[in-house]
Design a protein that fits this description.
This protein is mainly beta. The chain has 1 helix and 4 strands. It has a single domain, classed as Bacterial Protein-export protein SecB (Roll). Helices cover 12% and strands 36% of the residues. It has a 4-stranded antiparallel beta sheet, with helices on one face. The C terminus is likely disordered.
Length: 147
């Protein structure tokens, strides 16, 4: 019988790598902003760092008015059994959704707090489906993801 092994994650830390914006004084309450959100995942032996990049464009003037980059450190316990012969971690399908979701949600809240008193406090980062940010890893017979 195939024994299930537990993997647990722990949110270890968060920081802004970049936080810049141009204050917008004449923002109408119904004004629209476009958010471009990207993620990048850096893996290491006992965890991952999820970086979230956010660009905010003001539609009425067609201009980027804010840019943020954050890093969330997440440790992973119980991944020893996921190591390949070459020492590469092969995550179970769907596993990365949780750390990505945590990183995006934390970024959303941090922007609201740090941007309080500015126009940023009135335009929260939209709710997004974290599954669209999970990297697509294509395996071919005998291949492993690159470290």
């Amino acid at each position: 019988m195939n024994e299930r092994k537990k993997i647990s994650i722990k949110f270890e830390g968060f920081k802004f790598l970049r936080f810049s914006f141009e204050q917008q004084e004449d923002v109408h309450p119904a004004e629209k902003f476009d958010f471009e959100i990207r993620t990048n995942i850096e893996t290491y032996q006992s965890g991952i760092i999820v970086k979230v990049l956010v660009r905010v464009n003001r539609k009425s003037i067609d201009k980027q008015v804010a840019f943020f980059e954050t890093a969330s450190l997440i440790s992973i316990v119980g991944i020893e059994h996921l190591l390949s012969e070459k020492g590469v971690i092969i995550y179970p399908e769907g596993f990365l959704i949780t750390p990505i979701s945590l990183a995006i949600s934390t970024t959303r809240g941090a922007i609201m707090v740090k941007g309080a008193g500015t126009f940023l406090g009135n335009i929260p980062l939209p709710i997004v489906d974290p599954r669209v940010f999970v990297p697509k890893i294509v395996y071919t017979k005998g291949s492993e993801p690159l470290p």
